[in-house]
Write a structure and sequence with these properties.
- By secondary structure, the chain is mainly alpha-helical.
- The protein is about 60% helix and about 5% strand.
- The strands form three sheets. It has a seven-stranded mixed beta sheet, sandwiched between helices. The chain has a two-stranded antiparallel ribbon with strand order 8-9. A two-stranded antiparallel ribbon has the order 10-11.
- Helix 21 crosses helix 30.
- The longest helix has about 40 residues.
Length: about 800
């Protein structure tokens, strides 16, 4: 039987004269979800879903309030078990209702009041056995504070990045734009949010770089598309937009955050979920619990407190642009989208324009712009004539008319900020190079040859210079290493160079095999050394280390294979840190789930390890197959119980020390790597003694409990001590190398890839140096190539 919400939704849908399929097309909510809500098979809908349905139905204030109230049903009756069980879910929905009603972009004050009224009504009738959820004002205050912290972190990050890119040296290039083609523009009535019947006309969208924030605020829909050909300054414009918008932002406005949309697969993950993942990656503190049993990142995205600045729509794979545009049209989120015109136009031709979005197109630089900029980037050769310089003869030549009236190839090349920046690096910053050679039409007959020349000479130029305190790098090796990274990103179809994914340039089978072999070697050496120390026999230690190392490598390799390779998941850096002193600001630690995961994992490892060790031990005594199988099964049960209990207990104890990272913490690839290394090392230091002690003590307890039930069991104190010590160190090392981002970084990026010549041994120092030289840029927790053209050129040359 349909619930109250389903009945209200069906009545309002029929009142609007819509079928379920038509409501799906208007709202973006799947027809299966709508059917499930109306029949009562789906309960407690997310408030973002309720908002989408209400907007699609174009509900008036009274009907909208009724639908919101039905989504947060009150608890009637005398405290039955069913009512008490449902109360926590109601609390979640009430918190989400307050968030969605008060903070969703475009929500009116009336809608906010309705959410407050629904919150108050539901709280008043909630079961007294369940604590009431936080009031709506408290939820809004918590999200507002988190948004302010996020705004400070974003502003600090991009201010540093702008300085690193030398955008203000000596001054920003004059990026300008005009209104884009009408064929790429939605109806102006939609863009201006006008009611039906009201006359509408186009907005004046022309402007310059310093006015981009004002241009965006002049668009009532809050949706802007920035189009520009390769190198025209789209990324610089988004950076300036974020900084200018934050500088004049009011507390009621969302926080602009740049996302590289080229890394999004709309066929695999929804937009909001992807935004949440990216926000958590670049701001790990947002992984902390927020209102309504969701992460702070999810709450900020769902409540409309994040303004997505989606950079690089053209960098998406060809087959993903249409579903991406359709997914964007299924939402009403304010956003900024950048793309090359051809790729955006092709996606529009396949589906539709970005709904309610005003598109602008960046224009080319002029010869006057070059006259004002390039001479000021060189040293004064003649102080008596400050205007004299290497660029003056070149610019003068470009103004001379050509015989056929067409512009010179060099003038066409220098019409984009990217090529101007490359020309400045190659010629202005290196006095020994003369830009007059760019006018040689025999050497550079066309635009393509000139652009390839600038791209190819960029790396040798920047690596020819010495940086204070930096090591010297061989330019030829640098070309090979960066070419490998460029090809790695091209194959992964992402612009994001994440240190924890450097090993993904290898095949999954190769990654797993390297992980298993190195883990086997490390654990085998540790076991052999400790066995020799305890037993006093080198031969026995070598034999035991060999057997244990091979078994551990095999088992940890299988765990890594099934956990990451088969599922296609990444080993993500930790979003928490371990605090030993003081009371940690705890995450929502789930002891039950940790206990189950730890126990099952430990039991699996212990059972397999025990069976194989028992089987080998029995066969070494020349026991028959039946006796060997029995011994293996007994040891499998014994070690499964020992390792299962020890692993579950250790995971729970480590969870008590976890505390989330701060939102305002500076996030860069280096800082994320150092934070993850620190967390993993503390886990290793704590895990080894805790797990080893639990195994050693647990062995005696389990043997006593099972004595006689499984036959005559023997476990003397020395054997327990040896088992606990070896297990503690071996288990900690195996976990670190196979199941942590830092461990995989050490195995693959610090050992295997340098060993095979793909990367230098000092990978972290090399990447940071490339960033300092302007080859790479930072985008939160990841690096990116300075421009997609540079990445594409390096990848082609490497191939």
């Amino acid at each position: 039987m349909a619930g109250e919400f389903g009945a209200v939704l069906r009545r309002l849908r029929e009142k609007a004269g819509l079928t379920q399929d038509e409501l799906e097309r208007r709202s973006g909510v799947s027809v299966s979800t709508i059917r499930g809500l109306e029949t009562g098979k789906r309960s407690n809908p997310r408030m973002t879903t309720v908002q989408q349905l209400a907007d699609a139905l174009a509900l008036r204030s009274g009907d909208r309030e009724e639908l919101l109230r039905a989504a947060v049903p009150g608890r009637r009756g005398g405290g039955t078990g069913e009512a008490e069980a449902d109360a926590p879910e109601a609390g979640t929905a009430q918190a989400e209702a307050a968030q969605a009603g008060a903070a969703q972009a475009g929500t009116t004050q009336a809608d906010s009041a309705q959410a407050d009224s629904a919150q108050a009504g539901a709280t008043a009738v909630a079961s007294p056995a369940v604590p009431p959820p936080p009031p709506a004002p408290a939820v809004r205050a918590a999200l507002a504070e988190a948004a302010e912290q996020l705004a400070k972190a974003v502003a600090a990050r991009w201010q540093r990045e702008e300085e690193q890119r030398r955008i203000q040296d000596p001054y920003p290039l004059p990026v300008r734009w005009k209104a884009a083609s009408e064929s790429l523009t939605d109806h102006w009535a939609n863009i201006r949010r006008l009611p039906p019947g009201v006359p509408s006309g186009p907005l004046d969208l022309s402007g310059r770089l310093e006015g981009v924030a004002e241009t965006y605020r002049s668009i009532p829909s809050g949706r802007l598309v920035v189009l520009g050909r390769s190198g025209s300054g789209k990324t610089v414009l988004t950076l300036r937009f974020v900084l200018d918008h934050l500088r004049s932002r009011t507390p009621a406005e969302p926080v602009p955050v740049i996302f590289s949309i080229g890394a999004w697969d709309p066929t695999a993950v929804t937009l909001r979920d992807w935004l949440t993942e990216q926000l958590t990656r670049d701001h790990p503190g947002t992984a902390a619990p927020g209102p309504g049993k969701v992460s702070l990142a999810s709450a900020l995205v769902d409540s409309g407190r994040v303004l997505p600045v989606l950079d690089g729509f053209d960098e998406m794979a060809d087959g993903l642009r249409r579903p991406a545009l359709e997914a964007l049209n299924a939402t009403t989120l304010p956003l900024v989208l950048t793309s090359r015109p051809a790729e955006y136009a092709a996606a529009v031709a396949e589906t539709d324009v970005l709904t309610s979005a005003a598109p602008i197109e960046l224009t080319d630089l002029t010869l006057d712009d070059l006259d004002h900029y390039l001479p000021r980037t060189t040293r004064k050769a003649d102080r008596s004539d400050p205007a004299a310089g290497a660029w003056q003869p070149v610019l003068k030549k470009l103004r001379e008319p050509s015989p056929d009236g067409s512009p010179a190839p060099l003038a066409t090349v220098l019409s984009t900020p990217l090529m101007v920046a490359l020309a400045r690096t190659v010629y202005s910053d290196t006095p020994e190079h003369d830009p007059a050679e760019l006018l040689d039409t025999e050497r550079f007959p066309g635009v393509r040859e000139l652009e390839e020349h600038l791209l190819d000479n960029f790396l040798p130029t920047v690596y020819r210079r010495s940086r204070p305190g930096a090591r010297g790098w061989d330019p030829e090796r640098v070309q090979r290493w960066l070419g490998h990274l460029a090809r790695h990103l091209t194959e992964l179809r992402t612009p994001d160079l994440a240190w924890w994914r450097l090993g993904h340039g290898l095949r999954g089978s190769t990654r797993t095999l390297v992980t298993a072999l190195v883990t086997a070697l490390v654990i085998g050496l540790v076991d052999g050394a400790l066995s020799t120390a305890f037993g006093g026999s080198l031969a026995g230690g070598v034999l035991d280390g060999t057997v244990v190392g091979l078994l551990a490598g095999l088992l940890f390799g299988l765990v890594h294979w099934f956990t990451y390779t088969v599922t296609g998941k990444d080993v993500q850096p930790s979003a928490v840190r371990l605090r030993i002193r003081g009371r940690p600001r705890s995450t929502k630690w789930r002891a039950g789930s940790r206990l189950v995961i730890g126990t099952l994992g430990g039991a699996f490892f212990g059972s397999a390890y025990g069976f194989m060790v028992g089987l080998l031990r029995a066969l070494s005594r020349h026991a028959g197959p039946a006796s060997a199988l029995e011994t293996g099964l007994i040891d499998a049960i014994l070690f499964g119980l020992i390792f299962g209990g020890a692993a579950g207990l250790s995971f729970c104890l480590l969870g008590l020390l976890e505390t989330p990272l701060d939102i305002v913490s500076a996030v860069s690839p280096g800082s994320v790597l150092r934070a993850d290394r620190r967390t993993v090392l503390i886990q290793l230091v704590l895990w080894a003694p805790v797990f080893g002690t639990a195994v050693g003590l647990g062995a005696g307890v389990v043997v006593d409990l099972l004595q006689g039930h499984l036959g005559q069991l023997v476990m003397d104190p020395m054997s327990s001590l040896m088992l606990g010590t070896i297990s503690g160190l071996g288990g900690a090392l195996g976990y670190t190398l196979t199941l942590t981002a830092w461990g995989q970084w050490c195995l693959l990026a610090r050992v295997w890839l340098p060993l095979t010549g793909r990367l230098p041994w000092a990978v972290a120092a090399f990447l940071d140096d490339a960033y300092q030289r302007g080859v790479l840029r930072q985008a939160g927790a990841v690096y990116q190539f300075r421009h997609a053209r540079l990445q594409s050129r390096l990848a082609r040359r490497r191939r």
